[in-house]
Amino acid sequence: MKKLITMALAACLLMGASAQEKVYLWPNKKGPGSEKVKVTQETIERSKVPGHENRAVSGVTEPYFEVFKPASSASNTKKSILIIPGGAYARVVIDTEGYDYVKGYTDAGYTAFVLTYRTPNDGHKNADLVALQDAQRAMRLIRAHADEYGIAAFGIGVMGSSAGGHVAASLATRFKEETYKAVDNADKDDKGEWVSAKPSFQILVYPVITMQDNGTHAGSRKALLGDKPDKKAKDAASCELLVNGATPLAFVVCATDDKSVNPYANAIAYWKAMSDKGAKCELHIFPESGHGFGVLNAYGTAAKWQQMSIDWMKTYLK
């Protein structure tokens, strides 16, 4: 039965909207610190479901986002979501944690932006910052062109899964950090002030949150911080330690049987930090679905998580 449901859902996802636009983040396409990187971008197909793509993109030096406008039959909410796929900071799993999410949100009236970002394993300068640089720049670019996209400039949220959840939570907690030099007026306004990179809300799906020894996802931490990061590096990248009362409200999803990213040390730790600091956070812990379930492989009550996130946005985003 689960296989039949999976194949039917895959067929439904294939009927989703196509991107209306592809926007490179940086004026010369290559991101800051990637100018001398010689890797070639590659895309590997990993799907085991007939008719459904599951691609992993690696070697990104020219990051970009793709724009998906609300379905013509939907009532445009004027709100939008920057979607950041996961991939253990080694690749970007663009379908299962990117494009697959689009139809549910565009059908509900949201504009979606899917980010293909640089990962720290390709020899970039300041490698631990490149994904956050791309996320900050994407948020600022979207905000600068909000009128063109038909969205509210301060109704832009961020969404991330797995290591993409760490990028998203980092954006939500480190949005004021100057990770790169301004390159145009999308970064700084006429008064020389930084344009805000703060997301209006966050949706985190089985996210990597902590870089502490007890509970971190080892592969993501190694890719991001190296083999033996010191305490300063671990603390600076542990999102649960960076939460404060200004952290945007969050919707967090995970499964108890996640064998890759410990939900207790990550999702629950983030919820606790948010709650302790007086920031709004809704946490859903499902009994099953493991890790990397996206929308295609979620089952049981977890299969309803995307609709639950839409209901949450309708309730809390005004």
Structure, explained:
- This protein has 318 residues and is of the alpha/beta class.
- The protein is 29% helix and 16% strand.
- An eight-stranded mixed β-sheet has the order 1-4-7-5-8-9-10-11, sandwiched between helices.
- α3 crosses α5 (163-173).
- The longest helix has 15 residues, at 130-144.
- The chain is globular and about 50 Å long.
- The model is unreliable at 1-8 (pLDDT under 50).
Write the layout of secondary structure elements.
Blueprint: H1 2-14, E1 21-24, E2 42-45, E3 55-58, E4 64-68, E5 80-84, E6 92-93, H2 95-107, E7 111-116, H3 130-144, H4 146-149, E8 156-161, H5 163-173, E9 202-205, H6 218-225, H7 231-236, E10 250-255, H8 267-276, E11 281-286, H9 305-316
Parallel strand pairs: 5-7, 5-8, 8-9, 9-10, 10-11
Antiparallel strand pairs: 1-4, 2-3, 3-6, 4-7
